[in-house]
Structure formats: C-alpha cells, structure tokens
C-alpha cells in the first residue's frame, strides 16, 4: 500500500495562564509561567492512498487540531507529519479571506496554488456553479452565512483537486441537497484513490462514507482500524459516558483535564 500521510509522535501544546499578567511574565522571565495543555499528545498513525478515514471523538478531543496539522495550517509542537501530495482543508472557518469577495477568494486560492490565468479562468465558473450562492459570489465573505462559507470553501477545495482532502464538520452547516452533492463529489475522490479525512458528528454519515476510523480520545489515539472494528467501541464509550451521573462526569472531566496539563 502506498502511504499518503505519516504522522509520527505528534503533540500540540498550548500555553494556558491563570491571569493575563502571567502571560506577560512568561514572555520576559526565563523561569516560565503558566501551564501547558496538550490538545494532542503523541499521536502516531499512517494513511494509505485511497483511504477514507473518519476522525471520531467527543468535543474537545483534538480532531480539528489534528485536521489543521494534517492540512499544514498549523505546525505541531513536536513530532513529524509526512504528506505525499497536496492537502486541502474544508472547514467551517476555513482560510477564506473575509474582506475579499467569493470570486476574489477563488482567484487568490488558485494563485497561491500556482495555477495560471488560463486554469483560473476555466475553474472559476465551475467553482461558482458548485457553490451555488447566487449574487453573493461578488459580495465580501464577511457577509456570508456559515452555510454559504462552507459551500464556497467546499467548492474551491474540491475543484483544486488535492491529493489529500480533510473535511472538518463542513457538511454539518449546509442543507441536505448540498451535503448530498458534496458526498457525491467525495465518492468521485475516493474512486480516484485519493485520501480523505472526514470529521462529522453524524455517525450515520460516517458509517456510510468511511472505511476506517481514527478515534481521538482527549488528545491521544484510542483506536485506529476499520470502521466495523472501532465504531462499536466508540459507541460503547459514548453510552457509558451518557449513563454517568453529573458528579461522575465532572470527576471524569477533571481527571482528563489533569492528564492533559503539564507545568510550563
Ligand atoms: N488556540 C488554542 N489555544 C488553547 N487551546 C486550544 C486552542 N485550540 C484548541 N485548543 C484546545 O485543544 C483541545 C482540542 O480542540 P479541538 O478543537 O481540536 O477539538 P475537537 O475534537 O475538534 O472538538 P469539537 O468536536 O468540539 O470541534 C480543546 O480542549 C481546545 O480547547
């Protein structure tokens, strides 16, 4: 199997401060102030070309952080990410420039990827047609609804034809017709042997579309394997969590939070 993504011992640490003054002291003092919070802690996995991987995990477990790292939007604090090809991220808040119009965003993204004028002229109408947001295409993105931003982001990313596509919750804000259109495009991607990472809180969408599941549990990989293997275990965890009392949940969250913190 040809590898497309190799993630080795990746961690992402964020500094947290009890007070604003600690932040300033941390900048000027060699002693170091504040605590570190591990959004991701020692993540390792590999993806093959043609893999369609659902990234699952409860709120705050690190799915978006991992998506951003795979797509090269943010760097890891430590560890390595090897990407074979071009990776694109589709997320609700994905790299669209708010002050620019939709059309200008299309041009900018294409220029950044090194497309020439002829390619941009060819691609622009296809992207606009897919996004299907009417006259808003010539309005600044800051005037768009989250669904419209998602439509434009999806349309751009799918048409620039990346080798690795990371879709972070982008289908949850669009309507069903658009989601179906996107799933159809994603299937074409799959058939071309490209790699897709898919984050969705819709388990049924996940089951329908993904073959593998990467379960991120509070910053670490809990399980990585076939959907059939991982999903029942995840669902079992969710069921057990739901059954906990308020106090048990609080104690559990506290324990997790503690395990993700370290001194400075
Ligand atoms: N810039 C940041 N500074 C500090 N902490 C951050 C930052 N970005 C993310 N985090 C923390 O890292 C953890 C993982 O966040 P992330 O958004 O990756 O989780 P997620 O699994 O995508 O969550 P959700 O399902 O709610 O979207 C969270 O506890 C979050 O508060």
Written overview of the protein:
The chain has 264 residues and is α/β, with parallel strands linked by helices. The chain has a domain of 137 residues: 3-Layer(aba) Sandwich (Rossmann fold), CATH 3.40.50. The chain is built from 9 helices and 10 strands. The strands form 2 sheets. The chain has a 6-stranded mixed β-sheet, sandwiched between helices. α3 packs across α4 and α4 crosses α5. The mean pLDDT is 90. Adenosine-5'-triphosphate binds next to β2 and α2. This is Teichoic acid transport system ATP-binding protein.
Question: Number of helical runs?
Answer: 9
Q: Return residue spans where pLDDT drops below 50 for at least 5 consecutive residues.
A: none
Query: How large a portion of the residues is in β-strands, by DSSP E?
Result: 25-35%
> What's the pLDDT, averaged over the residues?
90
């Amino acid at each position: 199997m040809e590898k497309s993504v190799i993630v080795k011992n990746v961690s992402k640490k964020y500094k947290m401060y009890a007070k604003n003054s600690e932040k300033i002291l941390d900048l000027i003092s060699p002693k170091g102030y504040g605590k570190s919070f591990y959004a991701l802690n020692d993540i390792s996995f590999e993806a093959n070309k043609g893999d369609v991987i659902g990234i699952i995990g409860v709120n705050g477990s690190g799915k978006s952080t991992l998506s951003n790292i795979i797509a090269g939007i943010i760097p890891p604090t430590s560890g390595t990410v090897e990407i074979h090809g071009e990776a694109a991220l589709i997320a609700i808040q994905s790299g669209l420039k708010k002050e620019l119009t939709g059309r200008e965003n299309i041009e900018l993204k294409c220029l950044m990827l090194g497309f020439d004028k002829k390619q941009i002229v060819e691609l622009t109408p296809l992207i606009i047609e897919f996004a299907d947001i009417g006259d808003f295409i010539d309005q600044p993105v800051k005037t768009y609804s989250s669904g419209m931003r998602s439509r434009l982001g999806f349309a751009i990313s799918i048409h620039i034809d990346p080798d690795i596509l990371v879709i972070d919750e982008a289908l949850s804000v669009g309507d069903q017709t658009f989601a179906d259109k996107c799933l159809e495009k994603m299937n074409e991607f799959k058939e071309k042997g490209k790699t897709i990472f898919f984050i969705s809180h819709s388990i049924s969408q996940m089951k329908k579309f993904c073959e593998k599941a990467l379960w991120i549990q509070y910053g670490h990989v809990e399980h990585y394997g076939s959907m059939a293997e991982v999903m029942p275990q995840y669902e079992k965890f969710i069921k057990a969590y739901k059954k906990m009392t308020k106090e048990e949940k609080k104690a559990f969250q506290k324990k997790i939070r503690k395990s993700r913190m370290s001194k400075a």
